[in-house]
Amino acid sequence: QRQSTWGRSLVRVPKHIRMNLPPSFYPPTSAVSQPQVKKPPPTTEMKLDTRELKQYDTLANMYAIIVSVEHLEKAFTSGSIPPEAYTPACSRLLAQFKIVESAIRDQYPDFRTFMREYKLDCQLAAERLSIGVPGTSLFNTGHSTNTTAVSVAETVQHFITAMDSIKLKMRAVDDIQPLLNDLMVSLNKVPDLPPNFESSEKVKTWLLLLNRMRASDEIDEEQARQLSFDLESAYNGFHRFLQSKR
Q: How far apart are CA 99 and CA 104, in angstroms?
């Protein structure tokens, strides 16, 4: 009778003979291909103290803010939401961002480093967070429902408030920046304001500068003097614009 070998056709062995065959006659179990099932890696329970829990909670807030700003910017640029809804929502997110950014500054001096580490592809949010003010604060959206008289009165009021604050020795960034932001918003509500209006550009320059500083920072006396001069110059330029419209 033919000998059975692996790699050839197997010979049927009678049962009474098969009972007496040595174990070496049978193929090893490893010779039969079995589907490999990957076992999940063992899980390790991590115990975090209160400080670490707060840190991860802050990082999660930063992640959520960046994603929210990205969605808000996309909705605004596509015309899905009006400026009246966009502006307060964006201002609120920017204020939250400034608070969280200060809390993680030691770990992430630049929020873009945080975005790279967590693979956040949010270019619109990065641009808005770098500028630090809503898009409606920098550009005239053309959707204002205010009358010309009301817009002009608001702008004059914001100019005077900002100039008086510097004369009264207000130096903290978180005190000055909101005043300039309100001034920028009111300027953009004035009808027929020319593009790249010099007064608007001066205010915009200071807004961008203040946004790169911490909320707790203060401008020095040289900066305060220059800001006071620029505000006075911008106010005079705005007044000349109004005179030309009469």
A: 9
